[in-house]
Amino acid sequence: MFSKKGFIGPIGDDLPSLVPIVVALVIFFSIFTLTLNTYNSKNAFISKQLDMASVAREIKGDSLILGIDQFEKRCSSIQSKRFPYNFIIGIYGADVSLENISYEFAEIALNNYDAYATSNTLISQPNFEDSERIFFCAYNRIGSGEFSIEKKKYSLRFYPVAVQQPIRVQVGGTETEYSLTIPAVMAMVVWE
Amino acid sequence: MIRGQAALVDSLFFIAIVAALCTGLFYFAINYGSNSESLLYSFYSSDFATDSLKVMTYINVMRDGSPVNATNAASSTILVNPEFDYLLALIKEDYAENTGKGKEAVSITTQTAIAQTIYSVLKPFDDSIDYVFYISKEGVRAGEAKFLVMIFALHKCFSDDCTYQNPNKEVRRVFYACEPSQSNVLEKFVFSNVGKVDSALGKINLGSSAGSFSPFVTGLHLWVSKRIEPLEAVIETSELEDPAQRESNFNCKLILTKGEE
Questions:
Q1: Who among B18, B55, B117 is closest to A161 (CB)?
Q2: Are A101 and A121 in contact (CB under 8 A)?
């Protein structure tokens, strides 16, 4: 008969070999989870950047915006497509400092997206009869949070654009309406 | 005892395999998407340069070269007897009038208008970038002059102490109109010194008064602004009156200064 001296039990006997196995499994699953999270977050980031670029391209067209009607039409076309992210787009004159754009967007979001009442730096376009309209477009998905700079999970991009503005010109005592193309910057922020 | 040792060696083999797998996964996690990310950023920055070049060709300027001051065209804004036009129209007019008459193909007024226009298009980013805009002939042999217009926009320090330790140093945006005699000056003196350059190129046709049309290339190259002494030296030496000292052959002259007085 075999001697049972030193025998602890079926598991107890293999205890020294079980420790490295458990450690290896813990390390493996930790790294696996980390990799999976990184993979998902990077995919989400890339997808957000691509969507952002495609929306920006759709709004700015060939870097020329032929007035507020065209801008609003492009904006509502994107809004109706149920874009997967929230965004705010505003067009500013080229003489405006863009340092505090994120804060301005956050203030507009806080003010129920009433950009007209909140901002005085966005480009506006008069139609000479009614009130002015401003170059501003926002989309906030139902159930998603408001834009906040504290979250720091947003992407901000700037695109140079030319904007056509109607202007009244007085030549020899007669007033005529002309179009003037001016340089501007389209600022866009996207968040989840 | 032997059975226990065998189990221990097995588990050590197992941990070695897991370590190799973990290293692979970790490497994958660190590197995944970095190429796509850098590609996305480079798309954005090259898009930015292309947009800037397009905007330059679209916008109106006053006929005297100054920018149109009507950002917010309110209903009360009325321009009295204005004379505005497209920047491109000014360039085309100059070329048609001056070619073959021994004058500069593009007048200094129009060159200043180009500088003003680039400045107003890129003003929101003025602190962080430097750039060069040019119009060049197509199909020029090496060593031959090919630039119709070349505008350099750099930051220049006007203080005695221009080191990083001096936070109050006076830095202004300066524009140089250059007439390099060689075709490869940008590659040789600029692109090799400034780091990553975002470029946009376009094509235009310019017609002479004789009725012939020639193809030209418009180029805008942007880079992150930094103090690069070799580049400054190249531009500065080209300002010297003694041609023997103009090693770079940029032949620049200062046409515009912007910033705090």
A1: B55
A2: no
Residue pairs between chains A and B whose CB atoms are closer than 8 Å: 169
What is the spatial distance between Cα B66 and Cα B60, in angstroms, rounded to a whole number?
10
Closest CA to A89 of A45, A130, A123: A123
Distances (CA, A) of A50 to B39, B43, B142: 11, 10, 40
Say whether residue A181 is in contact with chain B using an 8 A CB cutoff. Answer: yes
A14: DSSP letter: G
Q: Which residues of A touch B60 (CB under 8 A)?
A: 180-182
Q: How far is A156 from chain B (nearest CA, A)?
A: 12
Q: Do A50 and B15 touch (CB under 8 A)?
A: no
| Cβ–Cβ < 8 Å for B91, A181 | no
Rg from Cα positions in chain A: 29
Contact B41, A161 (CB under 8 A): no
Question: What's the whole-model pTM score?
Answer: 0.81
What are the φ/ψ torsions at residue A100 (nearest 5 degrees)? -110, 25
Q: Which residues, 6 or more positions from B40, have their beta carbon under 8 angstroms from its beta carbon?
A: A46, A49, A50, A53
Locus of tokens 């901000």:
A156
Q: pLDDT tens, A113-171?
A: 887 777 777 888 766 555 678 888 888 887 777 777 776 678 888 999 999 888 777 77
